[in-house]
Specification:
Layout: E1 7-11, E2 14-17, H1 18-35, H2 41-56, H3 61-84, H4 100-123, H5 131-149, H6 154-172, H7 176-200
Antiparallel strand pairs: 1-2
Helix pairs in contact: 1-2, 1-7, 2-3, 3-5, 4-5, 5-6, 6-7
Length: 213
């Protein structure tokens, strides 16, 4: 796995690692598939996590652990979308806005999770290069993936908030390709948000068996 952490090329003076490039390309593909509400978003997200886990395992324990959590959430998302497949009028997963209770729970979990993870990172400095922003991005990613698994439009808002911190943090810490990918994430998030927002108006009514299209 050491070869994954070798330099692929240099771009604008930034050293691009193979693991950073490959893992984030899969992550970008997963987000695009999520926009299309394709079930394949979850296997691709799992594969991205697996690649980065393999690259980090053994020398960046905290980063490897974060990818393990991402893989678990990806399995949960696959299970959720398998259960909900076909509930929308077009045969895909139905999307909706979260209730106020769900929003409050996600915001509370994100805040408490960020504080808890940041304190863990501070207690064990080898787990993270920048505890608070790193914890924010990690917890925000998990919350976004959970909202996506539940078919909530708020999934896109969560990703946008992660992006706002992820872009400068990745560039500052030498993960240039991750920074570039997060910029592209931002564009996809805006398009995906619009698409899911519009679809949420029509997905509340599931198609009954035998009913005319």
């Amino acid at each position: 796995m050491n070869s994954l952490n070798s330099e692929a090329f240099t771009l604008f003076g930034q050293h691009i690692l193979w693991s950073d490039m490959i893992g984030n390309l899969f992550g970008l593909a997963a987000l695009a598939l999520g926009w299309r509400r394709s079930l394949w978003t979850w296997p691709v997200q799992f594969l991205a996590g697996l690649i980065l886990f393999g690259a980090f395992f053994g020398h960046l324990t905290g980063s490897a652990g974060k990818q393990a959590v991402v893989m678990v959430v990806a399995l949960y998302g696959w299970w959720q979308w398998q259960r909900g497949k076909g509930r929308g009028e077009d045969g895909h997963i139905a999307v909706r806005f979260a209730t106020w209770t769900e929003r409050a729970v996600m915001l509370g979990a994100a805040a408490a999770g960020t504080v808890g993870v940041a304190l863990l990172f501070k207690a064990y400095p080898t787990l993270s290069w920048d505890p608070w922003p790193d914890a924010y991005i990690f917890v925000g990613t998990v919350v976004a993936m959970y909202a996506q698994a539940r078919g909530m439009v708020e999934f896109w808002f969560a990703w946008l908030l992660v992006d706002l911190v992820g872009v400068p943090l990745n560039f500052a810490n030498g993960y240039a390709f991750s920074g570039f990918v997060y910029v592209i994430y931002g564009a996809l998030v805006l398009w995906g948000m619009r698409d899911w927002w519009l679809r949420s108006r029509n997905s509340a009514r599931p198609v009954l068996e035998g009913a005319p299209a």
